[in-house]
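Reply to dn_fold:

You asked what the input looked like. This is it:
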Amino acid sequence: MILVVEGISASGKTTWCTQQGGQHVIAEHGRMDGVPERASDPVAAAVFWAERNVDRWQAALAMEASTSWAVCDSDPLKLHYLWCLWQIGEASTNDWLTELDATRDTVAQGRIGFADAYIVRAIDPQLARQRALADTTRRRSNFELHVRLQQALLSWYAAIEQVLPGSVQVGFPAKMPAVQPRDDRYSLAAFDRMIALLPGK
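and this is what came back:
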């Protein structure tokens, strides 16, 4: 079983994952060196991030194989980030379509797929700001940008829920939910339907 936990910065997803997932957590990527510049080489940047997403998915599969379940602190299939940026005018249409193509290739190759379930938290932006200011253990660069992404992020997971009914829960539960494994993790048709359901810009 693979469970994804999502929400904007300071929504509490890492805390929930740590409390409920313990050693089963697949952490977010940290800072990376050698990242291609999207402005100068959008194709290289798109391929780079698609491959890093595959890396996290493979880590989740390895955890699942050894312990039967994994909890991902943010979605390995993180195409939503570029789509959300595009929705708020912080990425170009070309950036979005280039990233979509690179990610779709990895889905078509069966190297990344849908999780069995998703938990997504919507949080009041002011509460998120208060939490971010109070947390001295983490640097939250571009925090205000992440706050602006929340509505688009919720729209993304609403589209997943339409394609995979019952897979998305809004709000963090008090304990780990019971999750049934999916048999359509790598469905390219489901991926394409989800993309088609996303709101236009």
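Strands lie at 2-6, 25-26, 70-73, 117-120, 168-170.
Hope that clears it up.
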